[in-house]
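Q: What residues go here?
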């Protein structure tokens, strides 16, 4: 069996070469593949020979790696943060040079970690439909080169052109939503702490829904979210800890899963799969 390193194809050549050299030194006895092309080009028939998948990049690379891995029986997953946002890496407390994190991966024992599912797609960090998904869609790779400030700049464009997402959630009169967001991880948008209490080892998902009136106060609302004072905006806002949720997108909507966007309408089931994957890598003292 072998390790498959899925590397962000936009990673600079010098960083790729340094990483490949480090892999040779740290995993001298391991059979591995270093794939730095787009995941859609990976030969599916070769997947079964890999028992351990390693994402080298940001949240988009995490999404593509996990969804590729879930086509197999393998469940061992590691993350080497090397992207523009690295939001799921923040939740895990991953810091430092990729070479040092590789060494920690080599020494670590597997630990069961939760995985989110949106219908037939998987996510490790955040799933959302609404204003935040639109901001992510507007924030192209070129914009992300300037760092997390690019998300803030695109927020104003998204607010200016926003159409409320029409979503039917059983038991709620509200059908027009500004935010409709699920978290297995705690951050998105290059470090915005949408779910400060998120724990991908807890067996639960966190949910935040904000109705129509939140758009009128979106900037102060987001500031209060950032500083943990969102209780000041209780009207048409929902926070819940869930294991699953079913709802219906009443019209086609832009969806964001770990920084990747697609469009969907109709019935949706979002759920947490407790302990579905085996995380191999360092954790902060708080999570170890």
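A:
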């Amino acid at each position: 069996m072998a390790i498959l390193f899925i590397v962000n194809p936009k990673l600079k050549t010098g960083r790729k070469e340094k990483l490949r050299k480090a892999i040779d030194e740290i995993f001298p006895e391991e059979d591995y593949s270093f794939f730095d092309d787009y995941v859609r080009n990976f030969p599916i028939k070769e997947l079964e020979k890999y028992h351990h998948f390693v994402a080298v990049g940001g949240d988009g690379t995490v999404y593509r790696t996990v969804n590729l891995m879930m086509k197999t029986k393998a469940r061992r997953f590691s993350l080497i943060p090397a992207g523009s946002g690295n939001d799921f890496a923040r939740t895990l407390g991953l810091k430092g040079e990729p070479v040092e994190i590789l060494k920690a991966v080599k020494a670590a024992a597997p630990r069961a970690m939760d995985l989110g599912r949106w219908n037939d797609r998987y996510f490790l960090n955040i799933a959302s439909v609404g204003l935040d998904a639109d901001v992510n869609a507007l924030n192209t790779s070129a914009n992300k080169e300037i760092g997390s400030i690019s998300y803030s700049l695109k927020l104003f464009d998204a607010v200016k052109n926003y159409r409320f997402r029409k979503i039917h959630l059983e038991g709620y009169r509200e059908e027009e939503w500004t935010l409709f967001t699920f978290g297995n991880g705690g951050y998105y948008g290059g470090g915005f702490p949408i779910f400060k209490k998120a724990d991908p080892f807890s067996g639960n998902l966190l949910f935040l829904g904000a109705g129509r009136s939140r758009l009128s106060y979106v900037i102060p609302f987001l500031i209060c979210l950032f500083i943990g004072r969102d209780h000041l905006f209780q009207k048409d806002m929902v926070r819940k800890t869930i294991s699953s949720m079913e709802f219906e997108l009443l019209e086609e909507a832009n969806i964001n899963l770990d920084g990747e966007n697609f469009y969907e309408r109709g019935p949706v089931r979002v759920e947490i799969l407790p302990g579905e994957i085996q995380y191999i890598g360092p954790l902060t003292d708080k999570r170890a």
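A: Context that may help when evaluating the design: The chain is about 25% helix and 35% strand. Residues 13-26 form the longest helix (14 residues).
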